[in-house]
């Protein structure tokens, strides 16, 4: 067996960048095989659940809105159930049918839609009109669209982490556009160090998180897709109740036992706002988090203060190994 070596693979995923880093002692050929399997699994999930791909199960569900239920497998049903659970936890602020609002919002153009444009689409945003029954998913109103983008990257990160473990990888970091899942422990046995970007200067980190082995770290931020117009920031995290960007939080970071859990609660905390979001994180067992408010003040759970450092610093090239 060869000496332990560090390997890395990068590829585009879900409109962002995927990075998988791992160590292995079985040589470059085996590492290339493992990297290929990791990429194939991540891309499988994108192909299956992207609303932008005609052949995806999500596109089939959307095409049949108001017409007929669509048979789905257990994986799809579980993801839809997870999205509906998040909707309930946020009082409808998150909604997996909010994707139809892309007809009004185009964050690349920098144009603010009129209230009439947004309001015309809002009747199609309604999680209560999503039916799960007997292995099928049905959008009960024609014109509705489901979008699992709010949980897809994190689920993919968990799936790839599981694959790495099955392939005998004992130390790895899966980073899908800032949503992270760790595998095992660092080689020096110290905790992982994951940088959390400053939402107002994404080239820098505001603080670092040091989760335990096998943890998920996810961040929802208003800097990922958006623009500033007349002094107001418009971003892609829409409050489904209003159709407009959520206000109060600039970024929400959560550490949990999986990337999926971290991602769902990061989204929930962002949408709930500082006070209610922090209360949700404090009251939920098995996770910690920190919210950076729009005014720049950090609000962290009690446990988060013991696994992070808050001073800003230059973004490191490789915080993992």
What does it look like?
- There is one protein chain.
- With about 325 residues, the protein is α+β, with helices and mostly antiparallel strands.
- The protein has 3 domains: about 1-50 and about 150-185, ApbE-like domains (T-fold), CATH 3.10.520; about 55-145, T-fold (Orthogonal Bundle), CATH 1.10.3980; about 185-320, T-fold.
- It is built from 7 helices and 19 strands.
- The protein has helices at about 30-50, 55-65, 75-90, 115-120, 150-165, 260-270, 275-285, and strands spanning about 5-15, 15-25, 70, 130-135, 135-140, 170-175, 180-185, 195-200, 200-210, 215-220, 225-230, 230-235, 240, 245, 250-255, 290-295, 300, 310, 315.
- The strands form 5 sheets. Strands 1-2-6-7-10-15-16-17 form an 8-stranded antiparallel β-sheet.
- The longest helix has 22 residues, at about 30-50.
- It starts with a strand and ends in a 7-residue tail after the last strand.
- Residues about 310-320 have low confidence and may be disordered.
Topology of this protein?
Layout: E1 5-13, E2 16-24, H1 28-49, H2 57-63, E3 70-71, H3 74-89, H4 115-121, E4 130-133, E5 136-139, H5 149-166, E6 171-176, E7 179-184, E8 194-198, E9 201-209, E10 216-221, E11 226-229, E12 232-235, E13 238-239, E14 244-245, E15 249-256, H6 259-272, H7 274-283, E16 288-293, E17 298-300, E18 308-309, E19 313-314
Antiparallel strand pairs: 1-2, 2-6, 3-5, 4-5, 6-7, 7-10, 8-9, 9-18, 9-19, 10-15, 11-12, 13-14, 15-16, 16-17
């Amino acid at each position: 067996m060869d000496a332990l070596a560090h390997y890395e693979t990068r590829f585009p995923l879900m409109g962002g960048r995927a990075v998988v880093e791992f160590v292995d002692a079985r040589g470059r050929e085996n590492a290339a095989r493992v990297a290929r399997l990791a990429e194939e699994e991540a891309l499988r999930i994108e192909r299956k659940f992207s609303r932008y791909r005609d052949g995806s199960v999500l596109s089939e569900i959307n095409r049949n809105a108001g017409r007929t239920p669509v048979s789905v497998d257990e994986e799809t049903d579980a993801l839809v159930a997870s999205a509906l659970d998040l909707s309930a936890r946020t009082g409808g602020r998150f909604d997996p049918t909010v994707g139809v609002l892309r007809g009004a919002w185009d964050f690349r153009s920098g144009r603010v839609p009129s209230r009439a444009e947004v309001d015309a689409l809002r009747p199609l945003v309604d999680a209560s009109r999503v039916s799960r029954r007997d292995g099928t998913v049905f959008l009960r109103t024609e014109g509705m669209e489901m979008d699992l983008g709010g949980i897809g990257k994190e689920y993919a990160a968990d799936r790839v982490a599981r694959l790495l473990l099955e392939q005998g990888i004992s130390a790895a970091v899966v980073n899908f556009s800032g949503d992270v899942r760790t595998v095992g422990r660092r080689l020096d046995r110290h905790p992982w160090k994951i940088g959390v970007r400053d939402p107002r200067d994404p080239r820098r980190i505001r603080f670092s998180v040091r989760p335990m082995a096998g943890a998920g770290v996810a961040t929802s931020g208003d800097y990922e897709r958006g623009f500033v117009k007349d002094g107001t920031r418009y971003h892609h995290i829409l409050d489904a109740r209003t159709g407009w960007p959520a206000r109060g939080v600039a970024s929400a970071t959560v550490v949990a036992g999986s990337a999926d859990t971290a991602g769902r609660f990061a989204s929930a905390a962002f949408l709930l706002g500082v006070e209610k979001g922090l209360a949700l994180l404090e009251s939920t067992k098995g996770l910690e988090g920190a919210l950076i408010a729009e005014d720049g003040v950090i609000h962290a759970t009690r446990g988060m203060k013991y696994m992070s450092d808050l001073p800003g610093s230059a973004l490191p090239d490789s915080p993992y190994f």
